[in-house]
């Protein structure tokens, strides 16, 4: 891995202390038992098919005031910030492109993951996420309106507790609409982790780890899908692991439902946002009117003084 | 990919052809173009293969090195994929031009081989927690005539099938360091089990239908393609007697990804996945047959090396 | 639903060579002396040094009276006035189109050398200039004739005849220009039911027979015709002709309407068009076609 020598990189051959804890030596069975209790509920008290969407919230300019649009999404312990910058002309471009380009960059904070510390230079995970994000967003944006322009989308993952790609896509969709970039539809994403007959919707990091492990040749893997719900179009579908066709198709229908479930939340955030800015506008107008009245009153006073004079 | 210019009416012709299930060279939507394969073409690699699919030409070399296993997977080896889009293929790849495509393909391969059910990394272990084999799979794109992903996955599987790993006679633990003794005889080596290695099938959505093995012209008519990685059937890669001992195999998807700027309806996606799994089955059978024939030739010492003359 | 996959080994490779009755011509390599300088004129592919004429490319010598040329076997197209070519519009520029014709430099089609709707003798107005993209846009295929050759070797084209112009639905096959036999006529309506334009530049256009439509009156109808689906039977023939041409090219055989027609006749014994993609079938067709060609030359 290329190292950035201008920074302090820490000892090269250090190992996470977790390797020596008991957690590390758990086998599949123990791992599974720990994640699901006897009532069939997950560790955090969720049902198997219950997503973390409920506590999603959205901070607009509060997040990044310099960006044209920004958003922040929190799914319990997965926290993602996104900023979108204005369309700008592409420099050093040899060919005119009739469609606008999206530039996406996903970055993990160095302390965001449970395992080893993330390096400051982008690693292969981050590059793959960036490519996936770009693929997911491209069909949603009206790119023909920005010929030869580029829209920058930056994602910063502050804390990763599973499902960071769907969180990033949701955040980017929100930020794009916040930045008033024309889009065909709202974009939503969701993921599932599969291990045997267990399907975890919106998995945590532990559940993802479990799903990536192979156990006895059963189906396992993680699937992420993003959708344009109103248009009924899948904009990206990504699977890792190994599973048979029925399992894939089953997951697909679950994901489709999940993606649709997110829509009202996104809409609420956007509408709330519009109402807020509208109210703010109204308030400003009122204040302006008040000031004008005060000024007029002052004028009257001055005029009368002048007349008297 | 290479931006091929087509006139609108040419596109209409291709589109109608695909709707009619009769493409411009007479193939149906699920037919592949004829391929040519040769293994063991590079002498300094542990295993190599060259695959030619119409105008697409792929050379794969596998190098083996000794490495320390990852701390969280002490009993597994490593495998890494590198793709080089040489400027020989098309001038567009010059400089950093092919980098994105190369990254895309190597990511895809990495993910397809990720699951243990697709490729068992345990067979690369030498001494648990201390030493393992690391396979460097280098993929060279010599010529590019459409359908790179499929060709790459076929060539990689063939090269891995051909890979020989030196036999470790003894591994002694000597004060924390591992002391390996390798066999001196170059023929005293083991082959890898690659029967389950995945093949990628690209399904190009043109109009309302999906086609396999698109030509460069067809690729430029489509805005989205789906890549399905399907695990292979080990029965196709061993002799009949051995095959009967293996238990029934079910093909599984080891990765799915989408390429291109478009989007698809869920129903199309479902159909495409089914179509991809189906196509992979035939591809796997054909590859297995060809590789077994080649191995037969090698063991009978009748194999000539053809190399790069064409 | 069964897919057709064939993977053959390099050892099972088909050798595409077809025996040729003619004696092999003498080959020259770059730098090889062709003749003493005295009475000969220096043509393409040669240069003069030390009182002798030397070849600058690898190829076959051609002698016309006193002019000596060496024609490379595999080169880009070198245009001559009057050649029929098939090309693709790359760019729309001021008063002209840039056309890709497989020659060394991109060719040029002037706005003044096309037939515009509304009669030939109409003056080109500024409006016409603005409508250029309506007439031909980037990516469009055209058939044209070489009008003149510029000093740098780039070609100037014209489409001032009803047989030239924009091409609609069909298939383009690209071959080496040296494989095209020069003929009086390069537009053929093959008896099997397709039209074919064998461009001198190595681009061959195969399309279904076009019904004669009155070009002037109903512009809309022509555009609709462009988008109509080609019949399955026509499609099969086009695919067959295309695969026959690739079979002949794989065996490096000269292409003209007779050789293509012969190959087509021979290919009919393969019921399925896709069987012709198989290298063995390709060789078989090339071999049989060569046989038929030999027969007619002997007669």
Number of H/I helices of chain B: 6
Helix tally of chain A? 5
Radius of gyration of chain A: 25 Å
Oligomeric state, counting identical vs distinct chains: heterotrimer
N- to C-terminal distance of chain B:
25 Å
- Backbone structural class of chain A: alpha+beta
Strand order of the largest sheet of chain A: 1-2-4-3
Number of strands of chain B: 14
How large a portion of the residues of chain A is in β-strands, by DSSP E? Answer: 15-25%
What is the string of SSEs of chain B from the N terminus onward? HEEEEHEEHEEEEEEHEHEH
Which stretches of chain A are low in confidence, meaning pLDDT under 50 for 5 or more residues running? none
- Estimate the global geometry of chain A from the Cα principal axes: elongated
Largest sheet of chain B, described in full?
6 strands, mixed
What's the overall geometry of chain B? Answer: elongated
Low-confidence stretches of chain B: none
- Summarize the helix and strand pattern of chain A as letters: HEEEHEHEEHEEH
Average predicted local confidence, pLDDT of chain B: 83
| Class from secondary-structure proportions of chain B | alpha+beta
Rounded mean pLDDT score of chain A: 82
Total count of strands of chain A: 8
Rg of chain B: 20 Å
Describe the protein.
- Chain C: Pfam families: ECR1_N, KH_6, S1_RRP4.
- Chain C: Residues 82-160 form the S1 motif domain.
- Chain C: One of its GO terms (molecular function) is RNA binding.
- Chain C: It is found in: Cytoplasm; Nucleus, Nucleolus.
- The complex is a heterotrimer of chains A (309), B (310) and C (299).
- Chain A has five helices and eight strands.
- Chain A is α+β, with helices and mostly antiparallel strands and 309 residues long.
- In chain A, strand 5 and strand 6 (198-201) form a beta hairpin.
- Chain B is 27% helix and 30% strand.
- Chain B has six helices and 14 strands.
- Chain B is elongated and about 70 Å long.
- In chain C, strand 17 and strand 18 form a beta hairpin.
- The N and C termini of chain C lie far apart (49 Å).
- Chains B and C meet through helix 1, strand 1 and helix 6 of B and strand 1 and helix 4 of C.
- Strand 8 (233-243) of chain A pairs antiparallel with strand 14 (253-259) of chain B.
Short description:
The complex is a heterotrimer of chains A (309), B (310) and C (299). Chain B is 27% helix and 30% strand. Chain B is an alpha+beta fold and 310 residues long.
């Amino acid at each position: 891995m290329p190292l950035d020598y201008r920074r302090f990189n820490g000892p090269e051959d250090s190992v996470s202390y977790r390797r020596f804890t008991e957690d590390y030596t758990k086998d599949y069975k123990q791992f599974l038992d720990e994640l699901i209790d006897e009532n069939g509920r997950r560790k955090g008290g969720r049902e198997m098919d219950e997503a973390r969407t409920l506590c999603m919230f959205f901070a607009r300019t509060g997040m990044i005031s310099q960006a044209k649009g920004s958003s922040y999404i929190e799914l319990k312990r997965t926290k993602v910030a996104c900023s979108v910058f204005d369309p700008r002309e592409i420099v050093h471009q040899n060919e005119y492109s009739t469609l606008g380009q999206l530039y996406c960059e996903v970055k993990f904070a160095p302390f965001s993951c449970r395992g080893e510390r993330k390096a400051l230079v982008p690693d292969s995970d981050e590059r793959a996420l960036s490519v996936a994000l770009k693929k997911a967003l491209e069909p949603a944006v009206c790119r023909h309106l920005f010929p030869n322009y580029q829209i920058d989308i930056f994602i910063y993952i502050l804390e990763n507790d599973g499902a960071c790609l769907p969180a990033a896509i949701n955040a980017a969709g929100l930020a794009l609409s916040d930045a008033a970039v024309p889009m065909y539809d709202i974009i939503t994403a969701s993921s599932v982790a599969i291990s045997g007959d267990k399907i975890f919707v919106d998995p945590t990091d532990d559940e993802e780890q479990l799903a990536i492990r192979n156990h006895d040749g059963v189906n396992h893997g993680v699937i992420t899908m993003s959708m344009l719900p109103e248009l009924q179009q899948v904009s990206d579908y990504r699977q890792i692991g190994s599973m048979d066709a029925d399992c894939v198709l089953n997951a697909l229908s679950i994901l489709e439902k999940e993606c649709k479930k997110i829509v009202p939340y996104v809409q609420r955030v956007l509408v709330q946002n519009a109402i807020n800015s509208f109210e703010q506008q109204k308030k400003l107008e009122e204040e302006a009117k008040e000031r004008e009245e005060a000024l007029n009153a002052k004028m009257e006073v001055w005029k009368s003084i002048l007349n008297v004079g | 990919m290479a931006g091929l210019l087509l006139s609108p009416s040419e596109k209409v012709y291709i589109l109608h052809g695909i709707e009619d299930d009769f493409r411009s060279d007479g193939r149906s939507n699920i037919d592949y173009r004829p391929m040519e394969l040769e293994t063991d073409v590079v002498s300094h690699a542990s295993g190599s293969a060259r695959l030619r699919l119409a105008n697409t030409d792929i050379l794969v070399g596998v190098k083996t090195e000794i490495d320390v296993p990852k701390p969280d997977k002490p009993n597994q080896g490593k495998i890494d994929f590198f793709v080089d889009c040489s400027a020989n293929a098309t001038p567009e790849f010059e400089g950093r031009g092919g980098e994105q495509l190369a990254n895309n393909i190597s990511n895809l391969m990495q993910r397809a081989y990720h699951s243990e059910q697709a490729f068992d990394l345990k067979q690369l272990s030498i001494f648990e927690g201390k030493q393992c084999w690391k396979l460097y799979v280098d993929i060279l794109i010599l010529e590019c005539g459409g359908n790179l992903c499929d060709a790459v996955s076929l060539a990689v599987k063939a090269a891995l099938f051909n890979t020989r790993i030196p036999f470790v006679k003894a591994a002694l633990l000597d004060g924390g360091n591992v002391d390996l003794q390798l066999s001196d005889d170059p023929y005293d080596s083991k082959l890898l089990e690659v029967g389950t290695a995945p093949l990628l099938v690209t399904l190009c959505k043109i109009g309302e239908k999906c086609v396999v093995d698109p030509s460069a012209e067809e690729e430029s008519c489509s805005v989205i393609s789906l890549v399905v990685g399907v695990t292979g059937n080990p029965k196709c890669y061993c002799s009949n007697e051995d095959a009967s001992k293996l238990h029934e195999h079910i093909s599984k998807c080891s990765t799915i990804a989408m390429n291109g700027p478009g989007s698809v309806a869920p129903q199309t996606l479902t159909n495409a996945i089914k179509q991809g799994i189906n196509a992979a089955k035939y591809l796997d059978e054909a590859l297995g047959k060809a590789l077994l024939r080649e191995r037969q030739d090698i063991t009978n010492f009748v194999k000539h090396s053809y190399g790069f003359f064409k | 639903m069964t897919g057709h996959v064939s993977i053959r080994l390099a050892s099972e490779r088909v050798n595409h060579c077809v025996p040729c009755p003619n004696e092999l011509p003498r080959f020259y390599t770059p730098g090889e002396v062709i003749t003493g300088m005295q009475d000969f004129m220096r043509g393409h592919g040669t240069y003069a040094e030390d009182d002798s004429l030397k070849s600058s490319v690898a190829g076959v010598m051609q002698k016309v009276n006193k002019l000596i040329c060496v024609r490379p076997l595999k080169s880009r197209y070198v245009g001559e006035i009057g050649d029929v070519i098939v090309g693709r519009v790359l760019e729309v520029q001021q008063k002209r189109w840039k056309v890709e014709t497989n020659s060394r430099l991109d060719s040029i089609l002037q706005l003044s050398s096309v037939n515009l709707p509304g009669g030939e003798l109409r003056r080109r107005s500024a409006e016409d200039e603005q409508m250029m993209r309506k007439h031909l846009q980037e990516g469009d295929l055209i058939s044209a004739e070489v009008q003149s050759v510029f000093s740098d070797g780039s070609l100037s084209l014209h489409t001032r005849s009803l047989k030239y112009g924009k091409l609609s639905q069909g298939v383009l096959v690209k071959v080496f220009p040296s494989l095209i036999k020069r003929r009086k006529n390069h537009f053929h309506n093959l008896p099997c039911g397709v039209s074919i334009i064998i461009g001198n530049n190595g681009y061959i256009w195969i399309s279904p027979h076009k019904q004669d439509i009155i070009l002037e009156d109903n512009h809309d109808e022509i555009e609709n015709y462009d988008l109509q689906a080609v019949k399955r039977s026509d499609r099969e023939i086009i695919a067959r002709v295309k695969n026959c041409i690739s079979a002949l090219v794989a065996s490096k055989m000269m292409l003209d309407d007779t050789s293509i027609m012969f190959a087509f006749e021979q290919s009919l014994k393969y019921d399925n068009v896709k069987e012709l993609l198989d290298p063995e079938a390709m060789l078989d067709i090339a071999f049989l076609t060569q046989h038929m060609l030999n027969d007619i030359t002997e007669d």
